[in-house]
Write a structure and sequence with these properties.
Elements: H1 11-25, E1 30-35, H2 39-55, E2 58-64, H3 73-79, E3 90-94, H4 101-112, E4 119-122, H5 129-132, E5 139-143, H6 153-166, H7 174-193, H8 201-209, E6 214-216, E7 219-221, E8 234-240, E9 243-250
Parallel strand pairs: 1-2, 1-3, 3-4, 4-5
Antiparallel strand pairs: 5-8, 6-7, 8-9
Helix pairs in contact: 1-2, 7-8
């Protein structure tokens, strides 16, 4: 019995979007894939690889890194000659910032130069403030519309209200926490309206899964049979002049 639902777009969608972006928007024809050997990072990297091959991209290699390594210069040296003695067009990393992502990128730059030469992209796990200082030019994808400029009117109001009370909102997933609570409250209200018991886990769970055409701060959406949102928008950001800047939203 399904008992887990989420308002954030699933990671398999993210892997597909990232592969399409690198191939179609960045012109990456040869790619080397790295992951941190964890469920999130490897999962996205595997989907990226499968999609890349379907698109006609040449995958020169895919390997898991030692997240405790002191440096990755030898790995980057190997990658720098993996394309018939030349670097690949791009490197995709499936990982989170805590998996030594900053050191990996530092060594990539030291061996292959700045990120305009060999494109570098990862999922939302590296879309963090901690990457910005060394990450000029890299790309990262995040679920949803460009934050905060492209949000729905209700979404923009959430950001305005949040910032009035707590200060600058730099976390694009804050709005998802707010949407999650609104969904739960709606489910409880629906249980009550039907004469059910709002203290019953089963009743509330079933009401959550029954959510359809929910008009929230993310837009109008539903849960599918797997408990995933029907919203599949992913925004790609690039580090420019010390901050992540949205470069496009894709499905």
């Amino acid at each position: 019995i399904r008992n887990y639902a989420r308002v954030v777009t699933a990671d398999d969608v993210q892997g597909k979007v990232d592969a399409n972006f690198m191939f179609n928007k960045l012109g990456v024809k040869t790619v080397y894939i790295l992951d941190d050997q964890q469920l999130y990072g490897k999962g996205i990297a595997d989907v990226f690889e499968a999609t890349a091959k379907q698109l006609g991209m040449t995958v020169l290699g895919h390997e898991g890194i030692d997240t405790k390594a002191s440096d990755y210069k030898a790995l980057m040296q190997k990658i720098s000659t993996s394309n018939n003695g030349q670097p690949p067009d791009g490197i995709f990393v499936g990982m989170v910032i805590d998996s030594n992502a900053a050191q990996l990128l530092k060594d990539k730059v030291s061996i292959m130069g700045d990120n305009t030469k060999v494109k570098y992209m990862g999922p939302d796990g590296i879309q963090t403030q901690a990457m910005i200082d060394i990450a000029e030019g890299i790309y990262a994808s995040v679920a949803g519309l460009a934050f905060p400029d492209a949000l729905t009117p209700a979404g923009k109001k959430f950001v305005t209200d949040y910032e009035a009370k707590y200060g600058k909102d730099t976390e694009p997933y804050s709005i998802y926490g707010y949407e999650t609570m609104n969904v739960l409250l709606k489910a409880i209200e629906n249980v009550c309206a039907s004469g059910g018991d709002p203290s019953s886990r089963k009743a509330v769970r079933d009401a959550v899964f029954a959510i359809k055409d929910f008009n929230g701060v993310l837009g109008t959406w539903s849960f599918d049979a797997n408990g995933d949102t029907t919203l599949t928008d992913m925004t790609v950001y690039q580090v420019k002049n010390g901050s992540y800047v949205a470069v496009g939203t894709f499905k």
